Amino acid sequence: MGVLASLTAGLMTAVGALPVLFTKTPDRGVRDLALGFAAGVMLAASFFSLIIPSLEASELRYGGSVVPAAIACAAILLGIGTVALLNELLPHEHFEQGREGPEAASLRRIWLFIIAITIHNLPEGLAVGVAFGAGGSEGGMPLAIGIGLQNAPEGLAVAVSLLSVGYSRWRSWTIAALTGLVEPLGGLLGAGVVSMSQALLPWGLAFAAGAMLYVISHEIIPETHRSGHQKKATLGLSIGLVLMLFLDVSLG
After folding, report:
1. Which of 58, 169, 178, 248 is the most buried (most CB within 10 A)?
2. What residues form the membrane-spanning segments (predicted)?
């Protein structure tokens, strides 16, 4: 179920990118608003759907001591560090910053974009998989819905960015759609790990949260503030955050 839910959430990336095929290309402000919304959903999901359940799972196992807090803090830092390491080791390219990581002259520019987006999306699938492995449908469904909702504007933002650097409409949509397909891989990994050992459950939840927090801080927010659309980006973040909070409380 974790794999299927993360696949469904990933496919929303393709749905969100559909407007580039049939309508006028949205401007940069719309893209930054959409990315801000995605950041808000991920931020709320990190705390309400991952970190808090991690603390609760640790308390059931170790009691209300410093151990649950220590586990959550350590796992969050591990998640942040792992994605940061991937960010350094894998050659990739940001839409505005240009290439980072090792030299990769042999890689076509399109693959550099795909690797960058893969780094971005993998933690989302991991989070959905961990949530389903931890609590089944009841624990994972709110997060899967939230990630799916934020994947739609994210897919639009990716497609619009590719259009802006010269890719055709169909190619932009195809690449944006394909980026969502890495999420089931993360879902399989997350659900598998926590299903094998309940002792790993609090670690897996907080690790996924840390991975998403790194993506929010290092990738999404700087990207939305680079072209003077901070107000739109902040509005999008606020809407995404409260929507995810509402979904988590009402469905969970």
Report:
1. 58
2. 33-55, 67-90, 110-132, 173-194, 200-221, 233-251
Give the pLDDT of residue 71.
Answer: 94
Over residues 75-106, the pLDDT tens digits come to 999 989 988 887 777 655 554 444 444 444 43
Nearest residue to 151 (alpha-carbon basis) of 130, 129, 122? 122
Amino acid code (one letter) for 106: S
> Is the Cβ–Cβ distance between 128 and 190 less than 8 Å?
yes
Task: Dump the DSSP string for the chain.
Answer: -HHHHHHHHHHHHHHHHTHHHHSPPP-HHHHHHHHHHHHHHHHHIIIIIIIHHHHHHHHHHH-SSHHHHHHHHHHHHHHHHHHHHHHHHS-EEETTTEEESS--TTS-HHHHHHHHHHHHHHHHHHHHHHHHHHHHHHHHHHHHHHHHHHHHHHHHHHHHHHHHTT--HHHHHHHHHHHGGGHHHHHHHHHHHHHH-GGGHHHHHHHHHHHHHHHIIIIIHHHHTSSS-HHHHHHHHHHHHHHHHHHHHHH-
Looking at residue 240, its amino acid is: G
Q: 233 is written with which tokens?
A: 């980006």
Q: Model pTM?
A: 0.71
As given in the structure block, the two tokens for residue 122 are 């993998």
